[in-house]
Every structure is written in structure tokens, then in C-alpha cells.
Design brief:
12 helices; 19 strands; six-stranded mixed beta sheet; single chain; Nucleotidyltransferase, domain 5; flat; 4 domains; alpha+beta
Length: about 350
């Protein structure tokens, strides 16, 4: 999800990728100034109120380590705001962090939303951004920002296919003439991959591991395609039978099997998009290929898997995790483009 803050006489231009896993902020003229986990830790008071204890990276480090009265919250679930109060606190904190040593005014904000969001979810995004200090709020579809950030010729009369894999959602879109010709959104991303690893380790080893350990496994030995050489990794967790800490060794082949369901859902979404793309644009995709963006796209061999399944060229964008925020940063200088791509 992306928020853009457009320049005026009193403020600075910002673009914010408000994602399920991470929030990134881009400042015009300075580049990306903030990249923090989308996590808030709150303490429940005796009066039923919630006090914010930590936000961002320090909050993520507390996941699974908090006492009873303190809880770690992910305000963004599957690409949309699930906890309005926590999202507002997180937005306010990040905006202030990015805008240090500058006077703060009520800005205009552009929010990128997944394609399949409901009117209720759109309203939650708008209200949260307004409560965090926005003067005006605009909504833009996420794959469009990702395509712009990946330097695709979105304004040309040719077909460009983008597969943006975030923490909570995967957006597949065919873009031409600054518009989305076909799109499909599935609520599968990096978080679902982490959960699949947690469940696999639980079933096979009777070992309970946390989200951070699952993410580490995914990054180090996770793969979307068979490999001849198996990588191994020692992991730590709590034995579900004995109740004591234990260490086991897992390999890349079993993690490949654990990830097969979420990866297959992403592959199927791409295939459906290809089947429903107009023939003229499909011919362009054969020549230009499929472009992968988003942090979830960093899963090893995901491009190889898509290439094998579709028979088409598959290109990994340069620094896929930043494509959405950089795309919104580019729109800061193109107000006419913003008018064409806004959805509200």
C-alpha cells in the first residue's frame, strides 16, 4: 500500500509504501529515508486504553517476547487496515520520523490499495490517513505504482504484465495506456509463506517456532523450485510434547514442499491473468515478459518457477521491495498521471 505526499508551499513531497510487512517513505530530493516493519507494540492499561510502547523495527523485535499486558500488533493485514487505531499511531510516528527538522503541515496523501479492496476497506484507509494528519487523501491501485517504479512504459499502447508480491497480497495486472486492462488480486504473500513454514515445522517435528524464525528460514533456505543441492539450517523452537526448547535441522527441499501451496496460488493467479489478457496485449507480453516486484518476490527461484510454468520471459525488477514507493515518488512530478491513475 502506498501513500504520497505532494509538495506545496509549506511542505515537502513524500511517498509512503504502507505495506503489510514493511513501511517505506520516500522524500523528494532525498530518496528513501525510512524502511521499517509495519508493527506496533501497545500496552493495555487498567482503564482499557492502549498506550503505544514501540513502533517499527524495535516493535518487531518484541514479537513473541511481550508480557501479558503488552501485545505486538500488525495494523495492516492482507494489504488493508485491520486495526484503525494502531494504523493511525504508526502512520503518525513514521511521518514525523521522515519529516524531522522540518515544519509539519497537513499534507495531501496518496494511498495505494490492493485491487480487490471493498468500499469499507477504502474508507478505513482514507480515515486513518486523515487522522494521521492528511489534508487530502487519494487512492491509487498498487500494481500501477509498482509498474512505474519498475520503469515499465505504462503510458504506451503496449501490454506490460506486473506481478507485485507483498507481505499480504499478490497483485497481478496487465497495464496499457496508463490504465489497468486486467487485474487479479489474491490474498497470498510473504506472510502466508511464513505461516506455511510454521505449520510444516509444527507437523513434522512437533516444534513450535515464531514468525521471525519462519521468516529467517524463508530467506535463508526457502525456494520455489527444486534444487539439486540441498541447503540446510538449524532452527530453534519449543518442543510441543516436552515443553522445552529444542534445535532441529531442516533442508531446502522440505521448505520447498511447505511453500508449495502459497507459491502455487501465485502461479495460478498469473496463469489466469494470461488467459484473460486480450490477444494484442498478450503478444506484447510474449516479447517483453513478466516483471516481478515486491518483497515477496525475493523468494529464491520464484522467477524460475514462473518461467517454467508459463514459458514466458520473467524479469526480476531491480530492488523489487522499493518499486512501489519509488513509483509513487515518480508520480510526485506528474500530477496529470496521478489524475489518470487515481481510483477515488
Amino acid at each position: 500500500m502506498v501513500l504520497g505526499l505532494f509538495s506545496n508551499m509549506l511542505g515537502v513531497d513524500l511517498a509512503i509504501d504502507l505495506g503489510t510487512s514493511n513501511t517505506l517513505i520516500f522524500v523528494k530530493g532525498r530518496g528513501i529515508v525510512l524502511n521499517e516493519p509495519s508493527v506496533v507494540v501497545v500496552q493495555n492499561t487498567s482503564r482499557g486504553e492502549r498506550k503505544v510502547v514501540a513502533v517499527g523495527r524495535s516493535a518487531k523485535d518484541m514479537i513473541g517476547r511481550t508480557p501479558t499486558a503488552v501485545s505486538a500488533i500488525r495494523p495492516i493485514q492482507e494489504g488493508v487496515i485491520a486495526d484503525f487505531e494502531a494504523a493511525e499511531a504508526m502512520l503518525s510516528h513514521f511521518i514525523k520520523e521522515a519529516n524531522q527538522r522540518r515544519s509539519m503541515v497537513r499534507p495531501r496523501i496518496v494511498v495505494c490499495v490492493p485491487i480487490g479492496v471493498t468500499e469499507v476497506e477504502k474508507r478505513a484507509v482514507q480515515e486513518s490517513a486523515q487522522s494521521a494528519g492528511a489534508r487530502e487523501v487519494y487512492l491509487v491501485e498498487e500494481p500501477m505504482a509498482a509498474a512505474i517504479g519498475a520503469d515499465l512504459p505504462v503510458a504506451d499502447p503496449s501490454g506490460n504484465m506486473i506481478v507485485d508480491i507483498g507481505g499480504g497480497t499478490t497483485e497481478v495486472a496487465v497495464i496499457s495506456l496508463s490504465g489497468i486492462v486486467y487485474s487479479k488480486s489474491v490474498r497470498v504473500g510473504g506472510d502466508k509463506m511464513d505461516q506455511a513454514i510454521i505449520q510444516h515445522v509444527k507437523r513434522r517435528y512437533n516444534l513450535l517456532i515464531g514468525e521471525n524464525m519462519a521468516e529467517q528460514i524463508k530467506i535463508e533456505i526457502g525456494t520455489a523450485f527444486h534444487e539439486a543441492d540441498r541447503a540446510t539450517m538449524s532452527i530453534k523452537g519449543r518442543d510441543m510434547m516436552a515443553g522445552v526448547p529444542r534445535t532441529v535441522e531442516v533442508d531446502s527441499e522440505e521448505i520447498f514442499e511447505a511453500l508449495s501451496e502459497p507459491v502455487s496460488l501465485i502461479v495460478d493467479a498469473v496463469k489466469v491473468a494470461l488467459e484473460r489478457t486480450p490477444p494484442e496485449l498478450a503478444a506484447d507480453i510474449v516479447d517483453e515478459g513478466i516483471v516481478i516486484t515486491g518483497g515477496g518476490g525475493l523468494l529464491k527461484n520464484l522467477d524460475v518457477r514462473l518461467r517454467e510454468e508459463t514459458g514466458l520471459p520473467v524479469i526480476m525488477a531491480n530492488d523489487p521491495q522499493t518499486c512501489v514507493v519509488l513509483g509513487t515518488g515518480k508520480v510526485l512530478d506528474e500530477i496529470e498521471l496521478l489524475k489518470r491513475v487515481t481510483v477515488n
